[in-house]
Known about the structure:
By secondary structure, the protein is mainly α. Helix content is 56%, strand content 10%. The protein has seven helices and two strands, in the order ααααββααα. The chain has helices at residues 13-21, 26-34, 40-46, 52-64, 86-89, 92-104, 106-116; strands at residues 68-73, 79-84. The longest helix has 13 residues, at 52-64.
Amino acid sequence: MYERKVIPNLNCGLDLIGEVLYGKWKIRLLWFINEGHKRPSELQRKIPDASRRVLNMQLKELEEHELVTRKIYPVVPPKVEYSLTEFGKTVIPVIAALGQWGDEHGDRLRNVILKQL
Length: 117
């Protein structure tokens, strides 16, 4: 398991956000959970490029950061559902604003990204 060697700088709001939302799929996970996709298999279908292992790791980190909760139902086979906490719901407007900015500048961002490839 990964063990952090450097203590993060937590003096700035942007650094705090980076610590909580850093991860390729975390923002999408939060968005899809907010839209009602709560089962791990649903999230996997919404993000097919991500491995199940990585999604589980990032869901666990989101749970540790108190943005999502996991509910395990006592059935066979086990059923798990994720939902946003009240704290997690507060980040959704921020994600929506980032998505809107990306949509508004999509052509320019695509061109810049494709130049680098």
